[in-house]
Prior knowledge:
By secondary structure, this protein is α+β, with helices and mostly antiparallel strands. The chain has helices spanning 4-10, 57-65, 84-94, 106-123; strands at residues 34-40, 50-56, 96-103, 129-136, 139-146.
Amino acid sequence: MSDLNEIGERDAWRCWLCDAPVDPDASVNSDLGPSADSYAASKAKKGTATVERLAHRQCNTMRGKVAPVVPWGSEIFVVDPSPIFEAVERLSRKGGREVVARCPGQREADEASEWLLDRLSRLAPDTRFAVDIKQGGGQFMLSLRAD
């Protein structure tokens, strides 16, 4: 296992699950204290690599009990959003493209696309993602694809 400080520095002291800042000086026994979480980078490949990511102790503990929920940002306007974690897991394993949300306008779609790519750069740093925006039926569809 890597040193917690190395993992924290690499991940800019942000929890990979909730994306909130992690206090590097907090006790590792505190709910919001730092912890290292290991997860399989790609379950489809043989010899799956294990990646260590920074998480709050509470987020890491909850991940062991229930499937992680990565929330969409409250500052963006999306309709019918797909669960981010599950979409990322599927696309990381299989590749392809998946519609992840609808937006009422081009500006909202651009903002949601930018937010999603930024979030995924921390959630799944080993996979390159792109977002395609398609207009149709008075709305803008966001499709996430793994490159």
